[in-house]
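>> Question from a student workshop board

For tomorrow's exercise we were told to take the sequence and the ligand below, predict the bound structure, and bring the output to class. My setup keeps failing. Could a helper post the expected result so I can at least see what it should look like? The ligand is adenosine-5'-diphosphate.
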Amino acid sequence: MRLSRSRRYLLAKNLAKRLLPGSFAWRPAADDRAVVEAVEPVRMAWPAGVRKPLVGLVPDRDHPPYWTKYRHFLEANGIPWELYDVHRSDWRQRAARLDAVVWRPLSFPSELEECRRKLVVLEGVMGLFCYPSLREALLYEDKLLQTELLQHHGFPVAETFISHDEQEALAYVERCEYPLVWKVGCGSGSLGVELVRDVRAARRAVRQVFGHAGRATYWPYLRQKDYVYLQRLEPNLGYDLRVIVIGDLALGYYRDVPEGEFRASGMDTTRREGLPEDALTLAH
Ligand SMILES: Nc1ncnc2c1ncn2[C@@H]1O[C@H](COP(=O)(O)OP(=O)(O)O)[C@@H](O)[C@H]1O
Ligand SMILES: [Mg+2]
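>> Workshop helper replied:
Here is what the output should look like for this input. Compare the format with yours to find the bug.
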């Protein structure tokens, strides 16, 4: 397994970051206008006689940014918009004049928490059209909710055990085959996805999770507390697939599993080739 994606390495890195404060500060929002404007914008037909909404666009701090793509779309379609600083204390007052909000939250638990809370108000109480919606924001970066819903709707999912009950979790790890896949609820790029080698390690991890302080995660401010997410280690085909569905369009790419790894996500091994039809059909 890649050392740089192991829990121990990431915990040690977090410690180093605490000892060297300031040097790891997250970057402010970027503007890559030149890159985005080189691409033909998506144009939509607007029905006659319908007023165009005023859109509040949150400048996300991702790199590369998302908000500049939405700006390109809004400008190309003549939809009025303004920058919306949702993080400041007057976010409700600023939203009063808006019809819609576009806010691509960072995939960090801190911003997701803020986003979900504020969408309750923006979407649920003030009635603005929000993208993502609250439901979408709840689903994003929540492996527990995603898996529960996929199972509920009968999609094929790797055998997964999710429990918020210590006794049930301890009993479960006694009868598992090892190694077992352990996941943190919020994570991407394979961070928070680890192998548990044997039952002893599994027992210890379950006890930590249900203990007073929970179990440290690679998020420096977040501990895994009172839940387990365990999956059978499935044999892989040497890659995983990212499939993106937009209406009737399905597209995506391969990510190869590096030598000596079981994980593909976040390993910088993207390969663009025609995707298997069954995967496209399933995603669609
Ligand atoms: N149950 C599993 N069995 C085998 N490999 C897995 C399993 N779950 C995840 N993986 C591998 O680990 C990678 C990361 O897991 P995933 O749940 O997709 O997390 P992330 O949200 O970080 O992408 C996947 O790309 C896949 O290659
Ligand atoms: Mg993944």
